[in-house]
Fold these 4 entries.
Entry 1:
Amino acid sequence: MHIGTARTALFNWLYARHTGGTFLVRIEDTDRERSTEDAVKVIFDGLAWLGLDADAPPVFQAQRVDRHREAVQQLVDAGRAYRCYMTVEELDAERTLARAEGRVVRSPWRDREPLVGSNAPFVVRFRGPGDGETIVDDLIKGPVRFANRELDDLVLLRTDGTPTYNVAVVVDDHDMGITHVIRGDDHLNNAARQSLIYDALGWERPAFGHLPLIHGPDGAKLSKRHGAQAVSEFAGMGYLPEAMRNYLARLGWGHKDDEIFTEEQAVAWFDVKDVVKAPARLDWDKLNFINNHYIRAADDARLFDMVEQAHNGRGEPVPANKRDALSRAIPLVKDGAKTILELADLTVFVLKTRPLQMDAKTVGLLNEETTQRLIRLRHALSEVTDWTKPTLEQAIRDFAQSEGVGLGKIGPALRGVLSGGVAAPDLASALTALAREESLGRLDDALSQSR
């Protein structure tokens, strides 16, 4: 499920909620080779992760093939569609000629009577107007005009009798009572063709709104070189679904200068007519800023589960005797995390087992003067009975003052001893997360190694 598809689903969901309408999901699986069970599951998983709940069970297009054929027959009976018996070779020759003459493909069977009693294979094509123009009154772009002579007679039924995309979606949209079709810019040409099919069937057209595409930070069309593209990739990178909803809503739409807003505010403010016409650009810095906001606001128990899952995914499961320390660490370090993976990185220090393997930098700091100072600090900390962050902050300040030095003479070595050289929060937070026994034990281990 591409990030562009996710944003399209979000905009449909917001507009349905804003207008008191109904958000429906349809799986367009007429291409049976591409529409595998796994591919469909990815769509449902992506929608579920984003929290975009449909208001009715999904419709599977492949289950409605008979209804699509019925509509095509209605067009044939009305003279708005015809059987085309062109062979593959004839079609290739016509395409070459049409390209050379700067026109669309036209079948000679457009104006011929169908073969009676023949077993020759055929497709069924739509008989377009040929002249005049088709106007799509787009909700975002405004009126878009298409010269009918530039619209080919598209195939409605293949030689095996299966319906093609354009006729299937028209029939399903009509039968499902769809009033608004909000989709990507790459479907704008389809809107013209589908409008003609609606008109030919005597059905009212829905309102169309075509969203500009999402580009990479460099302004080029989003591709693999820009990083993540699929919703599952963003989830795997540690982005929260509520952050992705907030960020995706800002890709091409916004409310004044608001960067952060609640779901209720987005529903109240969103109108598809306010979507900008220019392509949106993926901005990693802004996404990280928004994700950090939601991490800071998230329930710590929920973050614990996500961080534990991240550690498990790295093949480093959280030991049972470290779960309490991990739980204590999360609220102390989460303000500095842009993603869940970063939050997991910031909690590694509490998961280490004694004795810690100190990094070279810490070993280099443990000269005689620093070691003696840490011995005195260890004694001072052992007398702290209220092992909480405010009390520990005060204890460290008092110790530095008694030593007549700044925290810079204490902090680097103490942090290295407590963390083994990996990322760690401020000293009081690290001590709080590790708890009294583990903190003093790590100090003892380091001091014994440095003597």
Entry 2:
Amino acid sequence: MTFELIDEMERLGCPRILVVGDLVLDRYVWGDAERISQEAPVILLREDRQETRLGGAANVANMLRGLDADVTLAGVVGADSDGTLVAHELARAGVDCSALISDCDRPTTCKVRFMGRAQHRHPHQMLRVDREMRHPIRTEIAQQLLSAIRPRLHEFQAVLISDYAKGVCTAEVLRPLIDAARAAGIPIVVDPAAGGDYQLYRGATGVTPNRSETQKATGIDVRSIDAAFLAGQSLVEKFDLQMAFVTLDRDGIVLARQGGESIHVPTRIREVYDVTGAGDMVLAMFGLGMAAGIEPTKLCRLANVAGGLEVEQVGVVRISRKEILTDLLQGSRRLAGKVCSREELTRHISARRKAGQKVVLTNGCFDLLHIGHVSYLQEAAREGDCLIVAINSDFSVRRLNKGPDRPIFDEGYRAQMLSGLESVDYVVIFDEDTPHALLKQLQPDVLVKGGTYRDDEIVGREVVLSYGGRVKALGVTPGVSTTEIIRRLRGAETEAISIPLPVPPERRAA
């Protein structure tokens, strides 16, 4: 499944997406929480910097830009300095703001978070102050918004509604928009307001409520996966939705579909630093995937990854396709192990290149894994971001005249031993006498070899140099070789093989 997700990420393209909803400006005040104030029993924050970020629908648009989508944002800001700042930051992010309406009767929604560090360690949110107006926008503003959207609706591959209950997502705006999108066959996905009226979203393609929002909308206590199945199906049936994506934080996502079986898509446990913006990131991933036609179950898996990466950050941070690809690659290693077929490895390397990583390859028999191998593989790994170890198959070892009783250990055993090393990312078995065909297929950035080789003696050198790669000999650990170890074992020698090791500092002092 991970390989399929990597393929889907590589086929996303650059879809055009419309985001409609409540724009928010997030302002952060950072500092050290040094002591208790003498004026009152409150923590005193010694400010050292301020930061502004996009929030709400503006953040969804920003997240989509981080995922390389072409984004238009429709919403309302106040005729104030914060509204000007939001528009400036959106334009700087590459978001089309032609459908952004300024309303002199309401302020731009602004949330100010005070972030305190105790003893200069990880910051935590101490207080949030909101400046906002929640009553619905005037009919005149709603009509301006629709006039900016409807003539262009056919330009978009998906529409996202980000409802933060700040007055933009009214029936006056959403009803004609959902009806028009549905008639045009354009997927429209809603991130509902907490405690919102789901009648507003009737007929949408899907909704993405979290656990608490789902419970408020359905009256079902969503503490278990089975309860999430029931609640998701209730949303689909009651509000004429094609699907409901019930997000369950550490438990992943439950997908309920009209006329279909509900599915639970689990996620892996992550270190959570801040949940701010995770819902926006998940909505952005759903919008991008729907615009690209990704099947809903796969889309849930990608949304799990995107949301998981977001909660590992402090504050709202854009997640890129490169980061998602990298996380998928790491996950595939955990799930499938390091030993790969050539086809699997080719797909992995393609994804790693798109993530900007440098690939290193080395090859050999590795019949008896010893300290010389371990040392040079550690050194090889430092030459790039990913180390492939290509090992000769059993037939290949015999053809190379290593001896009638070689290899001592079969290819499966050798591959598993190498995969146990932290420095090794992938192990692949090749049957040819030389690695030439494998090098032409994978085209590693660096070809390395341990042993008594010079650069110009490394087999496959000409292949790597032909496409602009680099070749490097890494030397040998003195006194240790597979041939020497086997010779000593055959001779039943009892003296231990000894090589000089670094002396620990405490022993040096003694």
Entry 3:
Amino acid sequence: MEPVVDGRGLALARDTGPEIDVARLRVALARLSRRLRRHELAGLTPTQLAALATIGKTGPMRLGDLAAAEGIAPSTLTRLVTALEDIGYVQRTADPSDARASTLAITAHGQEALERIRTETTLMLTASLELLTPEQRSVLAAALPVLEQLADAQGAVGRLPHLL
């Protein structure tokens, strides 16, 4: 299903329920996302961190699979993986089934960095939630399944340009 857009090319919410100010939602999600990434990222760019998290979640994977999962061009992938190797967060090994391919695995050092970043982010978000009233926290808790659905729908819609 194609998104409905206005005359400026901006996506609009379909008229199937309560009106949602899509622009406000986009800005709020972008600002929250930036706040969650503002902590010390263990010397990583957001793209490197996303790739490291993907490798950590899926286990050892081929370079091509990582490029596809993250939507990264091969030239960018090479620099990204080299940087992660240099820091000691991933280890690249030859793929035993294909000598032309490499497999990436997260190292113990990389796993520790991911856990530290997740802990820092969780603590920051927990502190932010304390600023909300109990009613606001209830509304947010009720919205979680919908936000998760929106996050999962990204793959079905395809990659959106980074306009945030």
Entry 4:
Amino acid sequence: MLLPAWFGCGTAFAEAGRETLRDLYERLPFFRTIVHNLEMTLAKSSLPIARGYLSLVADPAPFDEIVAEHERAVDGVLAAAGVSRLLERQPMIRRSVDLRNPYVDPMNAVQVELLRRYRGGDESAQLPLLRSIAGIAAALRNTG
């Protein structure tokens, strides 16, 4: 199973404790950079959108652990950075993410249907599916 890049970070953060995370964040530029990158990734992630893809898998049970890990990772980032909301220190980026989501969310819904059709043997779904991957990656400013 392919897991999100942040998977496991939340557990490590929870074990470290809030004071330790804050101390590491203040003292170590490398750790601060990791937290900032993780914060951006978490801010771009959407559990409701991910839930939409569950109809494509045989066993959706691991999703509950992914949700719990996501919550631990968010809590750890917030504790380390000393903020109450992801991207609190970058309001322009936060606004960009918030404005972008209503346009990207329907692309995810279309992609779920295209994946279903392609897996069902509909070869005509391949090109639109590949385009949906590229479109979502471009919107998220990720490689896909």
